[in-house]
Amino acid sequence: MNNPIGIISMQFARPFRREHLGLFARMKELGFDLVELLVPEPEEGLDASDVRKALDDAGLTIALAARVSLTRSISDGDPAIRLAGSDYLKYCIDLAHAVGAISVGGPLYGAPMVFAGRAPAPVTDAEMKAREQRVIEALSKLSLLANGAGCLLALEPLNRYETDVISTVSQAMRVISAVDHPSLGLLFDTFHANIEERSIPDAIRLAGNKLVYFQGNENHRGFPGTGNMNWPEIMKALRDINYQGPITLEPFRRDDDRIGLPIAQWRPPHEDESQKLIASIDLVRACAHMAEFQR
Amino acid sequence: MNNPIGIISMQFARPFRREHLGLFARMKELGFDLVELLVPEPEEGLDASDVRKALDDAGLTIALAARVSLTRSISDGDPAIRLAGSDYLKYCIDLAHAVGAISVGGPLYGAPMVFAGRAPAPVTDAEMKAREQRVIEALSKLSLLANGAGCLLALEPLNRYETDVISTVSQAMRVISAVDHPSLGLLFDTFHANIEERSIPDAIRLAGNKLVYFQGNENHRGFPGTGNMNWPEIMKALRDINYQGPITLEPFRRDDDRIGLPIAQWRPPHEDESQKLIASIDLVRACAHMAEFQR
């Protein structure tokens, strides 16, 4: 297995502005092949041609992470919010085309929960069914656009606290099957799967050839190898389905040496994490390589 | 290991009213030794002497699960909310005495997050420190009361989405050490630990003789044995620290055969779960027994 290894842009900076483009060379130097860039808001003023040039200079490929909200959400009952959701994803697809990104991934269905200040609350069966239909309808159209733009859409299940739309691979596969377009696939994040799936390897095998993007995160979202994830088993499952896409890391740093930790919030880097990142890449690559011999 | 095996009351009914007291006999019949009762609100009209009689009739012991809120919270900066938090926990301790409960457990520090509609947001260092001091001060007084009432207080870390006060055993141990009273100990829930701890067995060993209550839940909160928890390793860690307290199950049922699952909400039973509960008890007991021979 020789999957490209990626790193989320906010590992280094958030928001990611023009002055951060030099970090691409740093990522490459650490051993990464790909950067997963949080889609910049238009007002953040990141120019697509600047991004593309910086990527070329660094020899890095790119994938995009879409940022949905309660006001741009293709699953919403309000047609204006739904339209804003579609328009936003079109903007992401256009940007993907402009920077040469392989995919636009994330909770594309919208309706974020805890980080948007929305607490879990019961939803009627009728509304659940309606959301599903709205998501299928919007993604059917967007898949055609993505195809034209030469990128994939990667639908990501999130854990029960972050969404009440799609939390498991099984649910995501229902939408992906209904849309049934080669430009729509699955994004698998082990952090979320560790909360929702009965078995991470089984869930990977369920995704099968629909898996187009993989985020390898620890159970506690720290650096791979510092938690309870069974990386050899995970890589064997990826090998089982002949997955050749990116394996991206998002080792959000934590701060729990004191009471009242803000584990759930993104924090800027507070130390040089180079050695931890290099060790993480080494671990993922070693397990991926070893998976070839464990059949 | 011959730990009492418990079941949360809401597995059968919520709210748990007088007409549900007959369920105690059903719990005993299934093989449970203990019921973990959600502390009833005064207006729910559950009489302590009725509870005690039903427990005696069924031959069941009891522990209480406290229900904090944003308006009764010993960590809050508002003295009125803090007082309401202390008063509520005093009510819980009085109830524990009246029904003969061994402990009052839960996120006693208050300030619930996602289920109270509060999204994660940064907290200043000063406020984090102040929260810690308020929790230590309140629990120091409440520990004396608990001692007089013959029950324990069991402090429960919750995952990053449900609290930003105490999410790890390490953090809880700081408060428990500062209070330093034999009536205050730790409540360990494997579901939360699976999201926050680097190693569940290591976290159990860190708690050591301060562990007074244990909730054995799957990674996805379903029935033990249906997820990715390593039950033999967990029971070996409990054996390492000579834990003799309850092992309680809270296998919240889920409903993810469709899109838009409300995984995060409690749902009433929709089928006879007797066989799943019996199998869960058997699994926990078998792993606990086997732990005696794996040294």
From TrEMBL, chains A, B:
Q: Which InterPro entries match?
A: Sugar_Epim/Isomerase, Xyl_isomerase-like_sf, Xyl_isomerase-like_TIM-brl
Q: Which Pfam families match?
A: AP_endonuc_2 (PF01261)
In this protein, which residues make up the domain named Xylose isomerase-like TIM barrel? 24-265
Gene Ontology terms for molecular function? isomerase activity
Q: Which UniProt keywords apply?
A: Isomerase
Per its record, how is this protein called by name? D-tagatose 3-epimerase
Species of the source: Cohaesibacter marisflavi
